[in-house]
Amino acid sequence: MTEAFRRLDFRVHVHATEEEDRVREALAFLSGVEDPAVEQAEGHHGNPISILIASLDRPSDIRAFWDRVRDHGQMTPLLARLGKRLDARGQLFLRFDKQEAYRGRMKLVRHDDVVSVKGKVAAYPARRERALEVSRAYLEEG
User: Does the reported pTM lie above 0.90?
Assistant: First the structure.
């Protein structure tokens, strides 16, 4: 299987009203990373926000993530909207429901309470059309 993704980056916001340990569990479930990096930010009204960040760049870790997506029945909805999830530079954007991830389930969503995933498609030339071909072939192959 040819590797189609160079890297997957995961980000999730932890709002002051949330328990950080639970959000960490959701991120670990999706990414497989137990010890994410943490950035501090401030909300519009001065409220503290922690941003948990995890990255996968080893092919085996990236493959394991896509296997989990497939095992949780999310590959079909992902493939159905694949073209809408890719930008002009060949980056794939996904949003997984944060609450569902905490419960041990993967669910692609369009709302804002999410763990976001950005994947860099290994396509040359780095154009959207080529990235779409490469990512579709890889994701359908599994």
Answer: yes
Q: How far apart are CA 96 and CA 109, in angstroms?
A: 6
Which are the contacts of 39, defined by CB distance < 8 A and separation ≥ 6? 50, 51, 53
Domains, in order of start, for the chain: 5-141 (3.30.1440.10)
Calculate the dihedral angle through the C-alpha atoms of 58, 106, 81, 137, rounding to the nearest 10 degrees. Answer: 40
Place of tokens 């694949």: 82
123-136: b or e for each residue (b if 16 or more CB lie within 10 Å)? beeeebeebbebbe
- pLDDT single digits (tens) 75-93: 999 999 999 999 999 999 9
